[in-house]
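Milestone M4 deliverable, item 7.
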Amino acid sequence: MNPFTDQYKKLSNSELLWVVNNPDDYQLLAIDAAKTELASRQLTLEEMTIAENEVKVRHNAKRAKTEKDLALKNILKKTTNSMSDIIKRPAPKRKIKIIISAMLGLIFLFQAFSRVDLLKFMLTYNDARWDLPTVFLFIPWLTILIGLLLFWFRKKAGWIVLSVYITYQACYSIIGFFVWTFQDYPESPLLKRAISPMTYLPSLFFLVLFFSGMLWAICRGDIRSDYHVSRKSSLQTIIFSFIATALLFWLHLV
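Output delivered:
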């Protein structure tokens, strides 16, 4: 006895016709059961036409899904190959410079947007005071603007300014990360106003990784050579910036 006979009595006409039209997907006993059940129903021409149309719709849906899956596989394959090429092959220096400029440009726009209200207040209110903490908020913003312009026009000063800024941010993030990890947050008004938006460790840790990566990118040999910066000069710039940032941080703690 065919094990599919009773089961296939519950199927619709189009489902039975689907089994018959797709023999590669089903067992021989299943196909025989579908043919026998269709024959026993003695379908009219209209019923058979309806069943065939439903099968066509199902076929089109299956084909579309197959094509979509294939396209997705091709995209994944191309993406994987591209990532593999990026890992195996150093990125062209032009791309690196564009990425550095784009990233720092976004930071500049973010800082400009976040400080626009404060700038309006300082310029319009007579009681506003340009004290050190306030000036400190605008120095990094102006540094990015000046550095980006010089860097884009391949000036050595642009490389130095951006390296100082990136080192400053990396150092500040590292110190902030350890301060938050091992002791209470300092009461310095300068520090509260400068990094109060980053009041949790994951953000600081992300900043450490981000600016460390940016520093590595801008110190690549092919990038430095374009700006006529020697390895010794780059190390001196980074070390000086790191020490100056650490001293600045310490001076506002005491």
